[in-house]
Amino acid sequence: MDKTAQEKFNQLRRHAETLMKGKKDFPSREDADNPLKLIHELQTTQIELELQAEQLRQSEQELMTSKMRYTALYDFAPMGYISLDRKGVILEANLTFADMLAVERASLIGRPVSKHIVFDDQDIFHLHLKTVSQLHPKQICELQMHTADGSPLEVHFETTMVLNDAQDPAQYRTIILDISHRKRTEAALQKSEIKYRSMMESMTDPVYICSPDFTMEYANPAMIKRLGRDATGETCHGALHGLDHRCPWCVFDKVAAGNSIETTIVSPFDGRNYRVTNMPIQNQNGTVSKMSIFRDITDYLAAVVEKNKVLSQLRQSQKMESIGSLAGGIAHDFNNILHPILGFAEMSLEDLPKNHPVRENLEDIIQGAKRARDLVKQILSFSSQRETEQKPLLLKPLIQEALKLIRASIPANIEILQELYDTPDHVWANPTEIHELVLNLCTNAYHAMEQSGGTLWVRLDPAVPSPDLTLPPGDYCCLCISDTGMGIPPEKIEKIFDPYFTTKTLGKGSGLGLSVVHGIVKKYRGAIGVESIVGKGTVFKVYLPLTLSMKKPDKKLFVPSNPGGNEKILLVDDEAPIVKIGVQMLEKLGYKVTGVAGSLEALELFTAAPHDFDLVITDMAMPVMVGTQLAKRLIQTRADIPIIICTGFSEKIDPETAAFLGIKDYIDKPILTIDLASKVRAVLDQAKKDKNSNFMNHE
């Protein structure tokens, strides 16, 4: 036995002897002479010692079990536990807290807990400890920590102060709860609530929520607007429908059972029809409230009743679309017919002496052909076959053109008066849309006077809009169109600009005219007002802003006589009369002209001798190969050949498209001699300049 073990044994022996001597029945020295009694006493003492040892082992076992239980509860508790010194340094920490931060527990001991708290929350933490040290009772705060990889961790701190024997502050004991999930849930709930409220607030349909005792708990802005007040706290039947009892159609009981119900009602409050969607809302206390969404279907039901009228409007719209599609084809053929009429008349007029009696007839033919040409342009404009961008426009000529067309369709018992002021003022607009605006307003006025006749008065004046129109500051003109017809009832005034709303009888209107007018005026940043007296008439006032921009003059070559030349020109058109008049016009100007009635023949002729021609003039719409295709083949054969393209009407060609394809110019049929002469001369002169410029660059 080593020295240390022997010393421990001696200590135990001395301790046992001391215990035995303390017993009253410990054998005295006299009893030592009695061996049997001594043996008995020793055996008894041994049993007692064994019993004491067993009790000691059980106590140790219970202590160990208790310690293990405490350690398990401490380390694996569902919350973090830490002990801090007065400076906030970690003295102890359980495994749960270490797991929260994703670090080893040993690395936490002796480290300030503030190292794991985000910078913005440091002040919160230090104030928390200061409050605990001053007040001693438990203090609570919420802050954000970061894990080992920098991820944010939302936590709840509960800290108490531990006092020493002298009742002085010794340590902080802190419980840490991970509230990240709660925070995310709260944020999601808040976001959901904001989204729900935003959705409810932005709904155009009136919405309300009522409690089981039929008290309004909520009303969205649309419902408040409908009622004229926020009726929260009032009974739903009283606030919504002006009833002093439960609504006859009430479905609250069915909704409270968990059903969503849709009903159609007529509200006594305003006499309008509503489709009401009723849905249950579970409350936290277990009760059920009812949310109802009101959709005003009065106008929809009226539209259903007038189904035949809507179908008629659709057929009319389809008819107008078909007319618009046909307008382009009609324009092309009509212009091809006008072209030789105008050309031959011009040439014949030039060949006659000034005092010849036939001259006046020819001049009338030319004037009639020009008017027919202008009419075709107007037809294309009205059918939207020829788009024109917005530009500075004088309104007076456009209004006069529109009134000329309207006059032909208005009965003679309706008088049209014009009062259009002369001014250089311009508006930024599209001529087609101005035509449409005047046409719709005048047609509307004509229908109001169709039965009894009357006066249609069209005025154009400079004007200052009334403040209630809320127009931006600036100068304006006012187009005023009034009639002496039947007038519009006051209850319908506010609806006249709504699509498909009309006061006319079936077949007299589509209900789109005034809505189109309203859209055009708004696009031009103007305003439209209406005043009407039943039985006396209606006045529409359109205010349009004036622009400082001026319309640029058309770039035309004005010369006292038609310019000519001696260059060689290839003229291509599938219409023989057009080829004939074109050749005569150009030859009279001095040019050497080859006329061809077909694109394939022209391509073959040009390919055989591409340098025999100085210019090619081709029609657009031709069989087999259209003008743009022919131009492309000609340019492939000879890149510098100048080309002019002509058309009666085509959606596939305009000046911009022509320029993109390398075509030098574009001209609409029918063509006046002066226009043809100017175009040809300008293109040929430009071609010479380009050729000389290229030659100088090569030098």
Average residue-wise pLDDT: 81
Number of helices: 20
Care to count the β-strands?
22
The helix content is 40-55%
* Structural class by helix and strand composition: alpha+beta
The unreliable regions are 505-511, 551-560
Radius of gyration: 51 Å
What's the shape?
elongated
Strand content: 15-25%
Q: The biggest beta sheet, please?
A: 7 strands, mixed
How far apart, in Å, are the first and last alpha carbons? 124 Å
What is the secondary structure topology, with strand pairs?
Elements (H helix, E strand, L loop, with lengths): L2 H19 L13 H41 L4 E5 L5 E4 L1 H7 L20 H14 L3 E8 L5 E12 L5 E10 L1 H23 L4 E4 L5 E4 L1 H7 L8 H6 L10 H5 L4 E6 L6 E10 L5 E9 L1 H8 L1 H45 L7 H24 L8 E3 L1 H13 L6 E7 L5 E4 L1 H18 L5 E10 L12 E8 L6 H4 L19 H11 L3 E7 L3 E11 L20 E5 L3 H13 L3 E5 L2 H10 L6 E5 L7 H11 L5 E5 L7 H6 L4 E4 L4 H26 L1
Parallel strand pairs: 12-14, 18-19, 18-20, 20-21, 21-22
Antiparallel strand pairs: 1-2, 1-5, 3-4, 4-5, 6-7, 6-10, 8-9, 9-10, 11-13, 13-17, 14-15, 15-17, 16-17
Helix pairs in contact: 10-11, 10-16, 12-13, 13-15, 17-18
Question: What does this entry look like structurally?
Answer:
Helix content is 44%, strand content 21%. The chain has 699 residues and is of the alpha+beta class. Helix 10 packs antiparallel against helix 11, helix 10 crosses helix 16 and helix 13 packs antiparallel against helix 15. About 2% of the residues have low confidence.
